[in-house]
Amino acid sequence: MMVSNSILGGIADTVAQTITAIRQRALRKHPNGRLDPREDALAIEIHELDRKNPFSKHELIPESKLLPPPFDFERLTRFMAYGFFMAPIQFRWFKFLERSFPITKSSAFLPAMKRVAFDQLIFAPFGVACFFTVMTIAEGGGRRAVYHKMRDMYVPTLKANYMIWPAVQVINFRLMPVQFQLPFVSTVGIAWTAYLSLTNAAGDVQESRLLQPGEIRLP
Prior knowledge:
mainly alpha
């Protein structure tokens, strides 16, 4: 499960970096930042989705001059390592929910709903906070960087989580055996982790904009 979670995290970040690279290529073709509707249709669609994103006041795919390299292997490694080390925590959490709210043939719906409620009210806020904290520290940021990332990204990301994951977890807890719950969540979560990757990158860009030329980022 740890290896599977790591691989799926790597796939998700690869998707996120690919999306970013597509828009970067299109913007470099048009230095004024305006995309020709006849060119790079996928990049234009990505830009429109980003602009209409209701969960964040910052662009998830920032301007090309502030983008990371075409493919950031260090970032990929961070996501794979995060997925690897979070797998035991997630698995133990699912085992706890299974023991606390057993699903039987005579009682299935209510225990499943209790699992979803506990998961979304307890683990989801912890998971989002853990993700931004660990990723920021892994990128070399200190307390100030963690504070800014949490201030700018935590609430929008948690709102996005509540738009997606309750429905996914109903299916997960109602239909999946416990040994398949983490792989199911990780597979469905490829798109979610890609969103987190873009959000985390956007937060890094926002933090860099707060620094004046020559200013040193303090821990």
